[in-house]
Specification:
Elements (H helix, E strand, L loop, with lengths): L45 E5 L3 H15 L7 E5 L10 H6 L7 E4 L4 E4 L1 H12 L7 H31 L5 H24 L10 H14 L7 H4 L5 H11 L2 H6 L21 H4 L12
Parallel strand pairs: 1-2
Antiparallel strand pairs: 1-3, 3-4
Length: 291
């Protein structure tokens, strides 16, 4: 296939801030803050700064699972970081995560900052001794799948999701390339879940909590409007696993925290108390005055 308009990289790359589609405003070739702003601080031991993307859902689901398990020390405030508006580049956020990506956690009891979603899950699992098997073999297997997810999800989100759903133009090569990889990943999961109830065994763990927001949402038709394109119904074991996890009340709560898209009843922009799920989802808040 010939194309007289094929892109030829220049000798030296220069940044075109206008090129990049829907998420261009959150990408830049340098790190560090763009503006001074302090982060809010709530009353609870754990302060989460996030948005309800798949990576953000991991941490709020984990916090809700810990609370459901009786860990009162896992009470948390979830502050909304609007990544499309550049909140992640504030000086306060960069102090917690120099990589300027959500989610980020500040533990007020230890004074520790924790960034990268997988690191946050592992930190909370070890802090509360929950959702990570104690048996060495089972723990190793759960960690295998946790890190599998951390390495695989960028192909789904930044690869497939970007070029299929968000890129300003559709190009066959990257869509084919990343579709093939995502389908291979789904097959990896489907084969594992044919043998085990959960990832790595029969015990629900941080491996499942990390993976569900990405691949669970995908096979349930909640990501990129790509269910038919990817033929997600063919991955029956992944769909069984995804449906079972969605039925967990803690997952139903955690998945809507810091969420700003979708049904108003499934958007809880900030969470500062357990009652917020009943009182402060967007469908229950009075619309802003337009007068």
């Amino acid at each position: 296939m010939s194309d007289t308009k094929q892109y030829q990289p220049p000798k030296i790359w220069t940044w075109d801030a206008e090129n990049g589609g829907e998420w261009a405003s959150i990408n830049r070739p340098v790190a560090g803050p763009t503006h001074e702003a302090r982060l809010p601080r709530g009353k609870h031991p754990l302060q989460i700064y996030s948005m309800g993307t798949p990576n953000g859902q991991k941490v709020t689901i984990m916090a809700e699972e810990l609370l459901a398990a009786g860990e009162t020390g896992a009470e948390y405030d979830a502050h909304l970081i609007r990544i499309g508006e550049g909140d992640q580049f504030s000086s306060g956020f960069v102090d917690i995560n120099p990589n300027s990506k959500i989610p980020a956690l500040f533990d007020t009891e230890t004074g520790r900052r924790v960034f990268e979603s997988g690191a946050i899950l592992l930190y909370l699992a070890e802090k509360f001794d929950r959702f990570l098997p104690k048996d060495a073999d089972a723990r190793t297997e759960a960690l295998n799948w946790l890190f599998w997810l951390q390495g695989s999800a960028p192909y789904l989100g930044g690869g497939f999701g970007h070029f299929y759903a968000y890129a300003p133009e559709k190009f066959e090569y990257p869509i084919d390339r990343f579709t093939m990889e995502v389908k291979r990943q789904l097959d990896v999961l489907d084969r594992e879940l044919a043998e085990h109830r959960f990832l790595g065994g029969d015990e629900y763990s941080i491996a499942d909590i990390a993976t569900w927001p990405w691949y669970g949402n995908l096979v349930l038709g909640e990501a990129y409007d790509a269910a038919e394109f990817l033929q997600v119904e063919s991955y029956k074991n992944v769909r069984r696993w995804a449906t079972e996890i969605l039925e967990r009340p803690a997952v139903q709560r955690g998945r809507i925290v810091n969420r700003t898209r979708g049904k108003p009843s499934e958007q809880l922009h900030e969470r500062h108390d357990a009652s917020d799920f009943d009182l402060k989802t967007q469908d229950k808040l009075a619309p802003e005055s337009t007068g």
